[in-house]
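Something for you to look into today, if you have time. Could you write out one complete protein record for me, on any chain you like? Leave the record below and I will have a look.
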Amino acid sequence: MQIATEVAAGKAVLNLTGRFDFHSHRDFRSAYETALEEAGVREIAINFKQVDYLDSSALGMLLLLREKSEAAGKSVSLIGLQGMVKQVLEIANFGKLFSIQA
């Protein structure tokens, strides 16, 4: 998986591309920790538009991000959900835990 981060107007967008699975954990953690450390960032958006697969370890990574962001006083949103990725997140009831935007 590749991650490109954009920061503007208090929002960090992590644009993910490829498979979001266990092998992505170091890169994902590094990307979101950088965003959490930025003083001006109040929201972190995870963009799934280019993600074609995610597994249970990806769900765990998102839950860990949610926990750390709450501790830092920042919000997390999931954007660009489609196809199988959207279905998995819906089945896991992530809409109750995260702000989900089109």
In short: The mean pLDDT is 96. Residues 2-101 form a domain with the Transcription Regulator spoIIAA fold (CATH 3.30.750.24). Helices lie at 25-37, 56-71, 83-91.
